[in-house]
Amino acid sequence: MTELTHPDSNAARTMSQGKRYAGTILLSRQFIAAAILLLAGANAFAQDDDNVIKVDTDLAVFEVTVTDKTGKPVRGLSASDFRIFEGDSERPVEFFQPIKKDDERRPLSVVFALDVSGSMTPEELERLKSAMQTFIDRLGDYDSYFSIMTFAMDVKTVQPFTNRPDKLRAAFAKLGRDQDGLSTHAYDAVDAGVRMLRKNAPKVIRNRFPKRAVVVISDGFPVGDIVAPETVIERANAAESSVYSVILPSYSNVLGNKRPVLTPFEASGLIERTGGKTFYANKKDFEMLFKDLADEITGSYALAFYPSDETGAKPRDVRIESKKGFSIRQNRSTIVTK
Length: 338
Known about the structure:
The chain has 338 residues and is of the alpha/beta class. The chain is 32% helix and 23% strand. Helix 2 links the parallel strand 5 and strand 6 (144-151).
């Protein structure tokens, strides 16, 4: 090979080495992230049902639900179908978890928060217990972890995270109404569920990022909460968790019982700003409602990128777009690098 004789040859060699070094750093970061996922997946396979996996990476993970013009979920997309913007700068997709088939599911970590205050009738509670059991039976496998909480005046954990059907069935059998419940601490329950996801849910299951969600089942009228909705939203975003709500029948006489009333729980922005969705129950469709909920929760993509090196407490906007013009719903819109 002919050696450079230009006066700036040393600088040229330095630049060339710098490029190779930079390329090595980028490759190393990707390799480290992949290795962490593989190791965590191996741990997940070997763990007991209630143990905790803790994996810390610099990746910023986002949940994305993609729908077409009719509102139906879109599957079969690849990383090249998305664009990620951190502020005004486009960032490369460093990790992508696809959904290639209609029957393919994401691994799950789901907290059920059930309103057991006096506003729920015994008949509603029994139908809900049956529908929730069907939901878990449909999605329950080694890759799915569930926890069950109840709330009225107090928030209680009935069952910590487990993937064992027998424990979940026993937990459902314990559920009952709080006859003396004068308050409905829905926001406190979501906050407790988010903290449980952050501290106790597996971060990675079999080399895949699980969908992390809190499913709130209530009449949508919180009363007496300690934690403010805005605080719950911030904590849910930080925990990369989405909040879904199942609103029990609450209809306005003015609307002639044709449309559900917008509840304070929905109006708080908690569902929308965490990438969740609201489902409305009536007296007949609990089973179908939870089927739709299952399709929604398991139909999201996971995308991740390395944020810029900028530090500080100021949140930075993150926007994810579909190159094919599909509608995008993401579980959070900002990140903070510490």
